[in-house]
């Protein structure tokens, strides 16, 4: 009987140690996941990929209906060469100081000339976090718009 008690005590100690290790691992993983969530909130690069994009055809229909504001984020010189008719020019580096000029009760479609909409997605994310809930990025940017044969100015 003495041997059984010793074996049982060893199993109890091993089980407790295993449980303690498991709790420590779960705690560590929870801390890491929480840290990543906080890091991703503070880093707009990580969240810009999640910003909704609007397809070219849908954007064109929206443009035709006049129900959205198109926001050109390219430098003024690029805007002067060509842009979507009726678009507002606010170069990306000026958005933070000029976004309050935009009405927040309409859809804002941001666009640039980046092939993967990096700048326009960053801008849409910025606008969404500053009370513009329906800001979205134009899939394909100005190049996609032009290639689709949609109107441009000048």
Overview of this protein structure:
This protein folds into 2 domains: 41 residues; 101 residues, Oxidized Rhodanese, domain 1 (3-Layer(aba) Sandwich), CATH 3.40.250. Helices cover 55% and strands 11% of the residues. Strand 2, helix 4 and strand 3 form a beta-alpha-beta unit. The protein contains 7 helices and 5 strands, in the order ααβαβαβαβαβα. A 5-stranded parallel β-sheet has the order 1-5-4-2-3. It has 154 residues and is an alpha/beta fold. The protein is elongated.
The structure class reads alpha/beta
User: Strands of the biggest beta sheet: in what spatial order?
Assistant: 1-5-4-2-3
| Oligomeric state | single chain
Q: How large a portion of the residues is in β-strands, by DSSP E? A: 5-15%
Q: What CATH architecture label of the largest domain applies?
A: 3-Layer(aba) Sandwich
Please tag this protein with its features.
154 residues; alpha/beta; Oxidized Rhodanese, domain 1; 2 domains; five-stranded parallel sheet; 5 strands; 11% strand
Topology:
Layout: H1 2-42, H2 44-48, E1 53-54, H3 56-65, E2 68-72, H4 76-81, E3 88-89, H5 95-98, E4 107-111, H6 118-128, E5 136-138, H7 141-147
Parallel strand pairs: 1-5, 2-3, 2-4, 4-5
